[in-house]
Model the fold of this input.
Amino acid sequence: MNPIIVLQHNGWSYIKHGYQLSYTTASELIINGQAGVAVECPGNRGYSMFEGELLTLAIPQAPTSNLIGYRIRDEYRDTTTFPRTLEADAFELDDDQDEYVPRDGAAYKREFYDEVRETVEREPLLIDFIIVDRDCAPVERPGDITIDFPADLREHPETWHKHPVSISGKALFLRATAMLRAEVKAHPNEFAMNDYANIGTFTLMRVVTHKPMQYSYSIGKRTKRLTKTQSTVELMKISAPDSSYRDGAIVPGELRGANWADLQPQIERFLDTIRAFIAPGAVHICPHCDGDGFLVEARA
Done:
C-alpha cells in the first residue's frame, strides 16, 4: 500500500488523509506515540496538521474478541445432561455436513451452546509515510486551474501550487458570470441580466427607479399608453473568448503565474474589475435630465 504523503512548512507537519486514513479524524491520529495532538487543517479538509517533526504515525485499531469456550444455553440447562461449559476447540467443521460437530463424537450439538468470548485490545497500527517536501504547506487546488506538470509533480501533485499555473479566459468568464448571476438573484430589485450561457455572453443591467415616464406601443390599430417608474440600464457585457458575440464586451484572456501565489492575485484583480459594476452607487439618475437619462460611473 502506498505511503501517506506528508508536507512540512515553518515547523508544522501536514498529513494527507489518503485511503488508509479516510475514516480517521485528526484527533485520533497517534503522532510520535501521542493521540490528540493533530488538528484538521483549516481550508483543506484532506489534511491534518500538528506542530513539530513527524517521526512515527499510527492509528488506533478496534478491539477484537477471542473465543475462549462455550456455555450451554439457558433453555437446555435443566433439560439435558450435556456439559455446562466446553473448551474453545470443542467443535470442528464437518465439510460433508457443512456444520460444526463435536470433536469427541458426543451427542450435543453446536446450537445448544453460546460462544464465550473475551475482548482483546490491539496495538495501534503503524502507518508508512513519506515526506515529499519540507517547505510546502498544502493548498486546495481550484478545479479550473491548469498546472504545467514537471516530471516530479506527476508523482507528488500535492505540491502543485509551487509550480507554474494558469487559468483560461473561459474559466475566468465562468467565475465572473457565476458571481454576477448570484448578485442579480440576491438583489432582483437592483439588478437584471441577460444570461446566454449557450452562446457565452452575459449582460448586467441596473434597475433604476425614476420619475414617472410615459411610453406607448401599438396593438393592431390601437395605441396603448403606460407610465413606468423603473428602467434598466446596461452596466456591462462580458463574453467568453470563444463566443461569436464579443463586440463591446469584456473578453477575459488567459492568466499565467510562476506559481499559485503569483496567479491568485491576478485572478482577484480581474474579479475586482467585475465587482466594481455591482458596487453601490455604480448607477444613479442624471440630475440634468430629470429622470430621462442615467449616469454610469466610469471604471478604470
About this structure: The mean pLDDT is 88. The CA atoms of residues 41 and 48 lie 5 Å apart. The two ends are 55 Å apart (CA to CA).
